Amino acid sequence: MQSPLFSLPALPDIDLSLFINKPVFVAILVFFFVIYTIISSVLMYHWSSYGMRSAGVVIGETIFVLVSLALFTVAGLAINYF
Known about the structure:
By secondary structure, the protein is mainly α. It is 67% helix and 0% strand. The chain contains two helices and no strands. It is elongated and about 75 Å long.
């Protein structure tokens, strides 16, 4: 006994080149960078005001800034080589 053959419905062809291109990715990266900068400045102010500049707070701020710079650099390079 053979199983019945099922045909899939035809899906519409969506042109994604309108949404997936460098200018859109750059705009999204800039938007996230602005939001990230605002949130980071609030965090840095909080850590500086209420952390009393302990060694742990300074190390945490340094790691936060270095990792942030590395991630935004990788994101920028990824968009550049896209």
